[in-house]
Amino acid sequence: MKNETSPVAATIGKNRSGSNGGSASLPDTEATPNTPTSIPAVSKDTRRRVITASFIGNFVEWFDYAVYGYLAGTISTVFFPSSDRQTALLATFGVFAVSFFVRPLGGFIWGHIGDRLGRKQALSLSIVLMSVATFCIALIPGYGTIGVMAPVLLLLVRVVQGFSASGEYAGASAFLVEYAPAHRRGLYAAVVPASTAAGLLLGSLLAALLSSVLTAEQLNEWGWRLPFLLAAPMGLIGRYIRTKLEDTPAFRELAAKETTVKAPAFAMFRTYRRQLVIATGAVLLNAVGFYVILSYMPTYLSEELHFGAAESFLATTIALVSYIGFIFLTGIASDTFGRKRMLLTASILFIALTVPAFMLLDTGNFMVIVLVQIVLGGMLTLNDGTLPSFLAELFPTAVRYSGFAVSFNLSNALFGGTAPFMATLLIGLTHNQLAPGWYLVAASVVSLIAVLFAVETSKKPLQQD
What we know:
Elements: H1 7-14, H2 44-70, H3 72-79, H4 85-101, H5 103-116, H6 119-137, H7 143-146, H8 149-179, H9 185-189, H10 191-213, H11 216-221, H12 226-229, H13 231-243, H14 249-256, H15 264-271, H16 273-304, H17 309-337, H18 339-361, H19 366-384, H20 387-394, H21 400-416, H22 419-430, H23 435-452
């Protein structure tokens, strides 16, 4: 790769004695390989602060992003004509999907910033954009007040949200993997999907609370705006924490050697096309499964199976609590048994069990629905808890952010963001309530094939160039 150094990279190379300085005597401390301008060792305390910053920042972004999905039924009433309920719901999920189409572009831009200027720089900017955009949703008047401008403004703000989110997951994962001890990269990276699920959990709790204590009229008039208003203070807290950290040892070593690349995305396409294809395919199960099981499910239960709104949210909330615990177990398991084995197991389980699980949802029994969601969520964690470390390990440091961001966001744009829309559309076209389950099975088959062509990455050092 060409020796190209950015101004920020040069600054990092000159200022190496910041808050990351730790004691080499700590059992969990690892020194970065010696370079002409040596990077300090990483202490346990530094790693704890990195985990906290990554968790809180990702939590804030995905709470902001998920609230829209949980309040989709109410948002469809507020922002679209209510003459046809399914059409309004499709329009709401259409806006949800369109915001994903900007994510591949965002993946290139955030990947460039993260690989060229540093992971910290990209993550600090993305959380500000997300928080401002989410706060603005709370301020948009409804369709009854400004007519067609209401969904237009909603769409514009959602596009900004999508652009912001495209840099968050990949950046936080790369940040944690590059700070983690070599034998714990899977566990450290599992913090990212765990924080994502925690953001969803808070969104689900707030949606359940609002649905329980407010009348339908109060929820439609002003209640739905409350979760979006939380975005501003939460975003400021997340940004403050992130600005107090130094960039990762891997990136600082790259900058010190003056081997950052001027155009990371072009370098990625030129040299790592095979990894990019494998990564994009491996993400497909995660993309569809995440948004069907964790975001769309309350709407599916209430709108398609006519379950109570409060009970639908409660079932999803219980499932999310178990999901967070499973995520960390999966991270540990992936460090022990390998990334490839975990990802293959997830795909096989979804192919075999998804449709029977959706059949059980139609029983109308609350305990059965909760158990089914816990099982589906546990299956998804085998993929979701492994994927961040797997994707980060596929690419070398110089293009890691770009490779992760482009593959992750491309798959999510085409199949993740469209999953609620496709699920609703397929049910309408086929009159079959199992259609979302079959859609998830198809995604699992593609992921299975992609992972079969991957090599195991967990037992190897991170690629440097």
